[in-house]
Amino acid sequence: MKASHMSWSWMIIVSFFVLGALDIRFGIMGILCMTAPLAHALKGSGKIHCVKYCPRGSFLGKFLNRISLKRPLPTWMAKKQFKHLLLFMMLSIFTLAMIHSGGSFSNIAAAFYRFMGVSFIVGILMGIVFKPRSWCVICPMGHATQLIKDIPPLATLKKPEQVQ
Ligand code: SF4
User: Fold this and answer.
1) Chain-centroid distance, C-alpha 163
2) DSSP 3-state assignment of 130?
3) Which of 9, 79, 134, 152 could pair with 126 in a Cys bridge, judged by C-beta atoms 3.0 to 4.6 Å apart?
């Protein structure tokens, strides 16, 4: 079984935001955060990224535990339809952002940075009001990963522990 890196991988996302604030071109690294969970799922490793690597999940789990009100997430948020809608909205907005970037590297990097920033802030707010990793319940990348994982040929025998 692969070791978990969740105790320190939060440093990656903090470094990402610091570097991006210094030079927006570092925002392009957001592509790694967005595609890594999908790549793992496509390899047949299911949601291993969410359980063992994700820098965002690591941050939310590590820093929000003490300040979180730990309220239960409204049930409608956990419904598949809501997650489908969120994934569709994210892909649509992202596609529009790519079109409006005009192919400029800086604009594309800025779009990734904005996406990462907005979802990070939403994740933190959700983690304060609800349980620390509530964002993970609705995360479009986590949901897309689950959809890939559920494709029969990719359904994995490995069963990473449940994300909180
Ligand atoms: S659900 Fe999203 S934020 Fe949570 S661990 Fe998975 S990829 Fe990261």
Assistant:
1) 13
2) strand
3) 134
* pTM: predicted TM-score of the whole model, two decimal places: 0.90
Residue 119: inside a domain, yes or no? yes
Specify if 1 maps to a domain. Answer: no
How many domains, the chain? 1
Q: Rounded to 5 degrees, what are φ and ψ at 99? A: -65, -45
Closest by CA to 145, choosing from 99, 81, 83, is: 83
Q: Is residue 79 part of a domain?
A: yes
Cα–Cα distance measured from residue 154 to residue 163, given in angstroms and rounded to the nearest whole number: 20
Quote the ligand 1 centre to 79 CA distance (angstroms): 17
Query: 55 is in which domain, residue-wise?
Result: 10-145
Instruction: Report the C-alpha dihedral over residues 37, 104, 118, 49, rounded to 10 degrees.
Output: 10
Spacing, Cα 119 to ligand 1 middle (Å): 11
Atom of ligand 1 nearest to the CA of 57: 5
Short-list 108, 121, 92, 102, CA closest to 27: 108
